[in-house]
Amino acid sequence: MQNNRQKHTVEEIQTLFDSDVERFSDETTGQTSAVDAAIVLDMIEESAARMQSGAKFLCDIGCGGGNFSIRIARRLPQLQVTLIDLSRSMLDRASARLTAEHFHVEKIVQGDIREMSLEPEKYDLIVAGAVLHHLRTQDEWRTVFAKIYQSLSSDGMFWYWDLIRHENDEIQAIQKKRYAEYLVAKVGREQQERTFEMIERSDTPETPAFIILTLHELGFRNIDILHKNATFLALAARK
């Protein structure tokens, strides 16, 4: 595991996101600090709608400005949506955007997914987009994945997209360089350096191998990698 000393506290992370709502509310680009964000939005929207066309309940963990919820709800307008985020500003924006398009927001929950309970066997779809990298230990990852599994309905699906790290230091260095080059081209050198500093202070990403093996051990099946580029991974798993 990575060294977690001097990491931002939950309260500091909440404050950072309270002041950064606009960047997380553009569905055409997604999060510009994440590689292929727009591609992943498209892929999860289309795949979730096709594979879970009869879904009734969606839970969006770390919903940000609501991009994933809105895109999926346009395809599945019958959905009742639960929004979860540390930031009240993010929750307010996501809820307002969904309501403006006449989608049903069933519940808004401000808090840390590690500390809250999810209703068992309720959700047909659970999305966690660029949020779980804030977990600190492998035990926390296992606990949160178990919580997600227990909260999915029978045959429900988990949609995951996030920053990851690699098992081998050499590969990690190559992929980190590719990510840096992407950011420089997209937002400039100064923003690239700020993003890397934020990752160092706030994030503890895990490896694809750990994520997939843990999901499998917990009982998830049909685990599919949807997209992988540089230090980002998207996957889907069925209960």
Write the layout of secondary structure elements.
Layout: H1 10-18, H2 37-51, E1 57-61, H3 67-75, E2 80-85, H4 88-100, E3 104-110, E4 123-129, H5 138-151, E5 152-163, H6 169-187, H7 189-202, H8 208-218, E6 221-229, E7 232-238
Parallel strand pairs: 1-2, 1-4, 2-3, 4-5
Antiparallel strand pairs: 5-7, 6-7
Mean pLDDT: 91
Q: Strand-residue fraction?
A: 15-25%
Instruction: Return the CATH architecture.
Output: 3-Layer(aba) Sandwich
Label the structural class.
alpha/beta
Number of distinct helices: 8
Largest sheet: 7 strands, mixed
Query: What fraction, in percent, of the residue positions are helical?
Result: 40-55%
CATH class, named Alpha Beta
Spatial strand order of the main sheet: 3-2-1-4-5-7-6
Order of helices and strands: HHEHEHEEHEHHHEE
Radius of gyration: 17 Å
* Shape annotation: globular
Count of distinct strands:
7
The parts where pLDDT drops under 50 for at least 5 residues are: none
